[in-house]
Design a protein that fits this description.
By secondary structure, this protein is of the alpha/beta class. It has 15 helices and 13 strands. It is globular and about 70 Å long.
Amino acid sequence: MHLALLISNSVSPHTIGQWRLPRSYRGFNFTDPEFWEHLARTAERGLFDMVFFADAYSLHDVYKGTPDDTIRYAVQYPRLDPLPLIPMMSRVARQLGFGVTGSTTFLPPYWLARHFATLDHLTGGRIGWNIVMSYARSEAVNFGLDQMLEHDDRYAVAEEYVDLCNQLWSSWDEDAVVWDREHGIYADPSKVHKINFAGDHFRCEGPLHVPASPQGRPLMLQAGQSPRGLAFAAKHAEVCFAVRHNAKGMRSHRKSLDAELAKIGRIDRPKILWGIMPIVAETHAQAVEKQRQLIENVPLEAALAMMSGHFGVDLSKVPLDEPLENVEGAQGVRGSMAAIAEDYSDRMTLRQLAPRFGAGIAPHVVGSPAEIADQLEAFHDAADGDGFMLVTHALPGSLEEFVELVVPELQRRGVFRKAYSPGTLRQRFMDTD
């Protein structure tokens, strides 16, 4: 199975209040270079495929029409730029891969293509692009827009955006650089091409300023869960990330993605990494106590602010004992909202869901090392996936515990590697079936 670490350059990436937990930031601050170097070394020691940086420009301000609770409780805020971390981390972890989010809604395509091609060179072919269509109004206004584009319009822009980036990455032939010292010729101009791209949303003459990189283009990552998002993933993704809360939901997601692949006649199947939050301790009782502390650490107002921001609905106006499926008007992460409603078919209310959501967007996998391995194997066998994206609940503590306690158990069972294979990040994912 493949393993990746889901993180963001934030004080509380995906678990509200994790900065307060006793195993978080021991001797570190998330703004310290040493913290990120330590995470990279630890993930590589655990033979992870990659560290995956989620990112957004949003400040959750939907709840009560104000960002106050988001700021007060550090709800996925503040959040620093992840791109500058990659060269630093890749130098101390020479085989670990890196996935980084880049928005097709706000970033100029040429800028993104140049940055990711540069990072592919600097990492020796270990970079991936998490293609996202930003969704929050708070993001749009910071980039000079009056309002956010509608959901399907964002995907239409993204289709053209990816096409343009692919053409830019192909604008240098692999053998264009000749390094002819005798004649003073660096590159063959016949092998460097203008692209003269003219679409509905973007125009670009090209070529790119960066010669062909080790992978040619970054590994293409995608996390769409709405029908439109699944169609986009079927067309472009090489590795998908999805959060479903039980094996039934995971199988449903895989079936939906396979149906989209069939529609376009794509034969190769993207890999899927399921989001999970492992909470491990030497004993089951100790792990359950960790989970209790984690959930009790989440203020209700903070969780509702986070959910309101994700779903685009002011949940202060919804009764807390209202079943989730009755909440209407979600305009944000539509696929995620629908997946939660489908997975929790027991008519979970907002009061019940909020602490779980705030304590980690992925299902909790709780227990001793053997129990965690049992649950991962069960998901792996039942859900037709290819591995897991680990959501953290304390950093660096939860990563260290997984590497020290769970990875050896998975290796002992023969379901996880004991060494890295050579090659690029794409080869690591695509050459293992």
